[in-house]
Write a structure and sequence with these properties.
Layout lengths: L2 E5 L3 H12 L3 E5 L3 H20 L5 H9 L1 E4 L10 E4 L5 H12 L7 E4 L6 H5 L8 E5 L9 E6 L5 H13 L3 E5 L7 H17 L5 H11 L6 H8 L1 H15 L8 H8 L12 E2 L6 E2 L2
Parallel strand pairs: 1-2, 1-4, 2-3, 4-5, 5-6, 7-8
Antiparallel strand pairs: 6-7, 9-10
Helix pairs in contact: 1-2, 7-9, 7-10, 10-11
The structure holds acetoacetyl-coenzyme A.
């Protein structure tokens, strides 16, 4: 593999583009328009500049990585790529529409993968041109920092597809784990109920935002408290995953916390909208409740 296509230049997509470009791949990136794809590249330029400041990367290497990133206004050039990774919004309808569109230019020997955090791969495969060349490749946020990649095969995914994507994931310096196509795979099956429970605890008045975060972060030695982490992931994404777990298992233990639903309905999606369980407009995050 030499050329990768990434669909989505948000926090996950841009992270994937960055690590692939730094690892030597030419990377085409698209979003809802060229301007958003360019914005994603501008954010990567800033992060590469910081990596140079910290002497984690040389200036020529950062320049070369940036030059390998090519924002696109449509999918025409995706006909050149060996592997397409879809990292769009965590909504099944959005992903299906993308697969139908990009499927028109997907080469007969190229692979299509999705960074979905929880939607069943076998079901999504039905919207792609060839389920044998489709699988899940799940990165973690922040992509440049987080080590694992979950690989998820659908019922029809071929062995050669898994082998090619595994080789790609390892070439990024990541640790590969394999998960079955079950709701939430491994990490979100464990993580989302914990975050959801913290939100239930907040809603039931067990403690306030700061104390829940301090207690869990310090008490369990986690780098972030659960409400900070939910804001970091995006409350809309947390809710989508909670719903997939709830609907996919039919188990009421996975029902989304009412306050998670309420915050999403308010458009308080966490860091990306500047407000969630915390308000991010000042120098330090301040609890919103
Ligand atoms: N992008 C790239 N790099 C970032 C970053 C970002 N958004 N945020 C922080 N970093 C880097 C910093 O540059 C720094 O790198 P170096 O050590 O090489 O200099 C490193 O991360 C540590 O950053 P800081 O010192 O600024 O801050 P920190 O020590 O508080 O760490 C953190 C920040 C890495 C985000 C840490 O808080 C952490 O690990 N949090 C938990 C993250 C987590 O659980 N992620 C998984 C979310 S679940 C998911 O992604 C799956 C899903 O489907 C929902």
């Amino acid at each position: 593999m030499k050329t990768i296509g990434v669909i989505g230049a948000g926090q996950m997509g841009a992270g994937i583009v960055q690590v692939a470009a730094v690892s030597g791949y030419r990377v085409l990136v698209s979003d809802i328009g060229l301007a958003q794809a360019e914005k994603g590249k501008a954010g990567i330029a800033k992060r590469l500049a910081r990596a140079v400041e910290k002497e984690q990367l040389t200036q020529p290497d950062a320049d070369a990585a940036l030059a390998r990133i090519e924002p696109q206004g449509d999918y025409a050039a995706f006909a050149e790529v060996d592997l397409i990774i879809e990292a769009a919004t965590e909504r099944e309808g959005v992903k299906r529409t993308i697969f139908a569109e990009v499927g028109k230019v997907l080469r007969a020997d190229a692979i299509l993968a999705t960074n979905t955090s929880s939607i069943p791969i076998t079901r999504l495969a039905q919207a792609t041109p060839d389920p044998a060349r489709f699988m899940g490749v799940h990165f973690f946020n922040p992509v440049p920092v987080m080590k694992p990649i979950e690989l998820i095969r659908g019922l029809a995914t071929s062995d050669s597809t898994v082998a090619a994507v595994e080789a790609f994931a390892q070439s990024l310096g990541k640790t590969v784990v394999h998960a079955n196509d079950a709701p939430g795979f491994i990490v979100n099956r464990v993580l989302i109920p914990m975050l959801n429970e913290a939100i239930f605890a907040l809603g039931e008045g067990v403690a306030n935002v700061k104390d829940i975060d301090a207690a869990v972060s310090l008490g369990l030695n986690h780098p972030m408290g659960p409400l900070t982490l939910a804001d970091f992931i995006g409350l809309d994404t947390c809710l989508e995953i909670a719903r997939v777990l709830h609907e996919g298992t039919g188990d009421p233990k996975f029902r989304p916390a009412p306050q998670l639903v309420k915050y999403v309905e308010a458009g308080w999606l966490g860091r990306k909208t500047g407000r969630g369980f915390y308000d991010y407009s000042g120098p330090e995050p301040v609890p919103t409740r």
